[in-house]
Specification:
The two termini are about 30 Å apart. The longest helix is centred in the C-terminal third of the chain and has 28 residues, at about 85-110. This protein has helices at about 5-20, 25-35, 40-60, 65-80, 85-110. The chain has a domain at about 25-105: YheA/YmcA-like (YheA-like fold, Up-down Bundle), CATH 1.20.1500. The protein has 5 helices and no strands. The protein is mainly α and about 120 residues long. Helix 2 runs antiparallel to helix 5 and helix 3 packs antiparallel against helix 4 (about 65-80).
Length: about 120
């Protein structure tokens, strides 16, 4: 490994460490842990996932109805209205905004969308 490559990887690790120390990331981690600890919320997440999977299966077979879709949407709204989940979603949005800003800063001198295209092949 060249010295230049090692230096770039070191910068990447440092960037990751600094991101992990931001208030946005810390808030996200705290909210994620709160979701994981909330047994009622976990049951509702499991139920939503079960409903969603049933709906996806019905769509694949052509048996999905508008009523099924409304049931999924209602379950999702209920889930998102729970305070712990709401906090998690807000924290996730805030972290995503921060990471998008960081992506733009990295991408600008490269003339490529670092987060979206740098790793892909076959992109026009």
């Amino acid at each position: 490994m060249s010295v230049e490559q090692a230096s770039i990887e070191e910068l990447g690790r440092e960037l990751g460490d600094r991101i992990a120390r931001t208030s946005e990331y810390e808030r996200f981690e705290e909210a994620r842990e709160a979701v994981q600890r909330d047994d009622d919320l976990q049951e509702r997440i499991d139920e939503f996932e079960r409903l969603r999977e049933e709906f996806m299966q019905a769509r694949r077979t052509g048996d999905a109805t508008q009523s099924d879709l409304q049931r999924i949407e209602s379950a999702q709204q209920e889930l998102h209205s729970m305070p712990t989940m709401g906090e998690f979603l807000d924290a996730q949005d805030e972290l995503t905004e921060t990471l998008e800003t960081l992506n733009e800063a990295i991408s600008e001198p490269l003339a490529v969308d670092f987060g979206g295209e740098a790793g892909g092949c076959c992109q026009d």
